[in-house]
Design brief:
There is one protein chain. This protein is of the alpha+beta class. The protein has 12 helices and 10 strands. The strands form 4 sheets. Strands 4-7-3-8 form a 4-stranded antiparallel beta sheet, sandwiched between helices. Helix 3 (68-78) packs antiparallel against helix 4, helix 8 crosses helix 12 and helix 9 (306-321) packs antiparallel against helix 12 (342-359).
Amino acid sequence: MIERLAELFEVETNPGGILDATNAAIRDDGTSALIGGGVAFSTSSVTESRQTQVGFQHVAGTIPRDQVRKFERRVIIASRRQAYVRFSEPQYELYNRKGEAEDRVVFAVFFHATAVAKRVRRVCSAYGSSLYTVPELGDPMRAHAAVSSRQKQVRLHIEEQSDLLRRQEAQIKTTLMKSARDIVHLKRGVRREKAIAIALNRLEPASDTMLKGEAWVLAAERATVEDAVRSAHQVQSSGAALPYFVNTVPKQHWGMPPTHFRTNKFTKIFQDVVDTYGVPMYKEVNPALFTTVSFPFLFGVMYGDVGHASIIFTIALLAVIFEERLIRAKLSDMLQMAFHGRYMILLMGFFGMYCGLVYNDLFGLNF
């Protein structure tokens, strides 16, 4: 950026003819023909023959390429033809603060009157330009030295920031690789601590050193529960066990026991369908046993078509055959719900084909 701005400033001309050359370069429609070339000059040039000095102010920066013509015309109109605009291609690709590349052009606006400065800056702000501070340029040698010094400072800053980013990236990669190796153990530890916290929140303090909890347990699983409690109170270092008690609450203090039905991968979906309508009371007959046949059959009565039902049956049969592979796969919520009901869908397809044969219906046609 500084190199391109330096090219706009590091040329001399006769100061007495600058404004005349500028006005001559402006067309009748208010646009300038001095783009990328034309009369060049320094902001404070000295002519040895006349020994006079003319001071010019300047505004420099970058502007989107598609705004160049509009911007140039607006500057000339706003300054009443008392400003001179030059453009130059950037030497390097320009990026915004988000790190995205932008197609921009370097520009410099020269003017003599102080009153023009405010109008020029307002035009720059209106057209989305980014302004940069350029050192005051006088003698060409000193101007070149000032720009070179500023350029070295910018390059040094870029190198320092790039080195800092490289070190931070290396540190982040090292941290992530170390965490990736421990992620399995961390997940297991988090799940264990979460389960402990949930269990402790369900207990009540029985004394200063003991907690009490009540729970419903299947009669057939009582021994398993006692073994689990004993294992939880076992001290790993000494092998001794902390004091604990597992007692049965008398039946007169029982409330209504919860309902529990043993299910497997076939009956689970039918039990879930029944539970959506209502859970049977304790020791009541479980209607899910009858639903395993009645629900798919009634669907077949409604959907009786050999063609369509065979498609449903085939898809469900494939899900049953490859269920071990599909269990390990990551399915979407919709597919997971359909896979959960694969056995029900299988029976629905079967009874749909059966009723389709009874109805003599194949894809809506008789056969």
